[in-house]
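User: What would this chain look like folded?
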Amino acid sequence: MNPTPSEAAGEPQVTTEWRGPFKNSEVNLLHAECFEHRLFEDDWWAQVNRISLGWVCLRQATNLIGFVNVAWDGAVHAFVLDTMITTAFRRQGLATDLIREAVERAREAGCEWLHVDFDPHLRSFYFDACGFRPTDAGLIPLK
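Assistant: Here's the prediction, encoded as structure tokens.
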């Protein structure tokens, strides 16, 4: 586990962990909060272990306060999915810490590209804070 530079004075240390253990219930709760939908009972553990290069867990003590999934094609392309920080810990640079860890781990795995899709209000975060650059991309909505 790596301590983040964003810990608050007097609070338990905030740590990031690549491929860290988690309970499905805590990721489902975080996802419902961050993406503003009802609570699901998805099997995140099976999903990320089946299709992901890895994931980053962000914890304060034992509480999961952030998460990002790094899916990949098994070769040179990795994809940032589901970047999440619980409301009480936003605007402290912690999401940037999550992405920084994801970038480093994708690089270490030999990936040549790290892709991300996001809603327009997150442009500044991904482009300015995290260093992604705009590219042309295509999308076919399936639902």
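The chain has a mean pLDDT of 93. If you want, I can go into more detail on any region.
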